[in-house]
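dumping this here so i dont lose it
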């Protein structure tokens, strides 16, 4: 028997209409070179309709891709709704990719229009001659149009003025594409991910749930995570849905600039990759910031060291670890401590928080072995993390590599993980980052987390280095905190009580910085290239086989 329910499409125009009707005066704030720009949901909604109408008048057809090359700003938020709600697809370009990767994804997506921030015009115009399908550039900013070789080109505000503020949103199927992101392309060309209205709608409803991010109208949300990185983890959409105040840092992404904005706007929820919060911790510790308004800082993109959780606990701030991927829209899990575990000793609670957490509402997760069989949830047995759910992709856009990423309806993440008896996911490593020594696997993530717990260490990355006898051995690349000194033996002695001897790195090298990917993760591919010919000490400070322990 079929139920008698309304046919109510789950598309994004509902979010904007709700914000305009119920929270018209709620602010959207953007940091600018002159201070801050303040607007409201009422103004955003009106301008968004104008923008959608202008796209239509310029002949951008439904389904065509409209790209953004931009920072986190109120204008970018207008694009987040104007493009998909009018039936087009917003393709957020990662401004930190290499030029040849940007050219590839613009041409692969067949972008018709690119909206670009003033400050990024010089970067984009170096690639323009290689774009095959772009017909128009719209420059976002204030004042006169900057001098540029982009053509044809128009100022955003002039483009907007051509639109109708009373534009009516078309009726859209919830399964139509709304947004498009490409993976960061650590191996081969980046892969395109298309998000439907339905997926983004359901993801936002779940993100607002108490056991996920618990967003509400009472919140002030500052996503440091870029709007070109997996839809800024969904925060702009969910914040609009619930009517939360939104604060955008623009191009001002240094720890000090972010902390100034957190304090000034009394932010309650912030989100960003670990490197931002590692850099911010010593500034907060100086005691010159009042961050008492913050209830949660969501951190993802790479594993959060327990030492960083502890450091922020001491500062009176709570980091909540989350895991996800471009392919999972992105939230796949959030590390909330179950009520049944809350009264455990503090060190056990910390270990739980340091895991990637429980699968998000309506997301299923499993760990599979090399033949595709699910392994036990015992917290020990490793395998590939696989997920499925209503906002997990079923394939990449126009890409022959899709079949290899799926198994029996599950998306293969490429992450090596364990799941414990309580259902908590813990990432062990990326498949390509594991060290295989004498036929046994060593987790670089666990070594890195331990290294960053050493008081003198700011950042650390562990990579595999070729070894004539053991196939591969771990090499630790360490960045010390300013003013600190340390020796190889000192670092290894700190690790020694925490790991089996054969897990210990064969050597420690001190480097000025760890290279980062376009989304702020440690770029081990670059490190592996730099140290591929590195000669390890003839005698390591350990026994090199598990049998020796």
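and the seq i came up w/
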């Amino acid at each position: 028997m079929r139920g008698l329910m309304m046919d109510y499409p789950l598309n994004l125009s509902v979010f904007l209409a709700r914000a305009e009707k119920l929270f018209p005066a709620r602010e959207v704030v953007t940091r600018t070179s002159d201070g801050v720009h303040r607007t409201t949901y009422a103004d955003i909604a009106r301008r968004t309709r104008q923008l959608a109408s202008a796209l239509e008048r310029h002949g951008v057809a439904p389904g065509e891709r409209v790209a953004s090359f931009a920072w986190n700003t109120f204008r970018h938020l207008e694009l987040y709704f104007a493009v998909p709600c009018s039936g087009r697809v917003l393709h957020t370009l990662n401004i930190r990719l290499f030029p040849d990767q940007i050219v590839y994804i613009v041409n692969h997506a067949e972008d018709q229009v690119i909206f670009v921030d003033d400050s990024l015009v010089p970067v984009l115009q170096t690639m323009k001659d290689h774009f095959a399908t772009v017909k128009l550039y719209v420059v976002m900013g204030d004042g006169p149009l900057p001098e540029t070789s982009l053509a044809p080109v128009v100022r955003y505000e002039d483009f907007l003025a051509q639109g109708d503020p009373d534009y009516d949103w078309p009726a859209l199927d919830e399964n139509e594409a709304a947004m498009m992101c490409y993976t960061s392309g650590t191996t081969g060309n980046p892969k395109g991910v298309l998000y439907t209205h339905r997926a983004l709608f359901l993801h936002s409803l779940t993100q607002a749930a108490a056991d996920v991010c618990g967003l509400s109208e009472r919140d002030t949300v500052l996503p440091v995570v870029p709007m070109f990185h997996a839809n800024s983890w969904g925060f702009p959409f969910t914040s609009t849905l619930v009517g939360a105040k939104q604060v955008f840092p623009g191009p001002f992404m240094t720890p000090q600039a972010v902390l100034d904005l957190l304090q000034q706007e009394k932010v309650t929820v912030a989100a960003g990759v670990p490197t931002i919060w590692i850099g911010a911790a010593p500034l907060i510790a100086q005691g010159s910031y009042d961050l008492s308004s913050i209830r949660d800082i969501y951190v993802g993109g790479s594993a959060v060291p327990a030492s960083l959780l502890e450091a922020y606990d001491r500062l009176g701030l709570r980091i909540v670890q989350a895991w996800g991927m471009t392919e999972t829209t992105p939230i796949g899990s959030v590390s909330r401590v179950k009520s049944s575990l809350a009264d455990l000793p503090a060190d056990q609670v910390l270990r739980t928080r340091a895991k990637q957490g429980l699968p998000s509402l309506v997301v299923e997760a499993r760990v599979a072995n090399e033949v595709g069989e699910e392994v036990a949830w015992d917290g020990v047995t490793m395998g590939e993390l696989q997920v499925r759910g209503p906002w997990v992709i079923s394939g990449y856009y126009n890409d022959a590599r899709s079949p290899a990423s799926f198994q029996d309806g599950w998306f293969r993440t490429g992450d090596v993980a364990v799941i414990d008896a309580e259902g908590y996911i813990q990432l062990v490593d990326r498949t390509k980052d594991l060290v295989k020594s004498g036929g046994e696997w060593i987790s670089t993530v666990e070594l890195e987390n331990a290294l960053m717990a050493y008081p003198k260490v700011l950042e650390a990355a562990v990579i595999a280095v070729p070894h004539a006898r053991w196939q591969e051995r771990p090499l630790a690349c360490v960045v010390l905190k300013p003013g600190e000194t340390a020796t190889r033996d000192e670092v290894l002695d700190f690790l020694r009580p925490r790991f089996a001897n054969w897990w210990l790195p064969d050597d420690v090298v001190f480097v000025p910085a760890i290279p980062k990917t376009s989304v702020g993760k440690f770029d081990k591919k670059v490190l592996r290239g730099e140290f591929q010919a590195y000669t390890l000490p003839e005698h390591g400070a350990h026994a090199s086989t598990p049998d020796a322990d």
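The longest helix spans residues 41-57.
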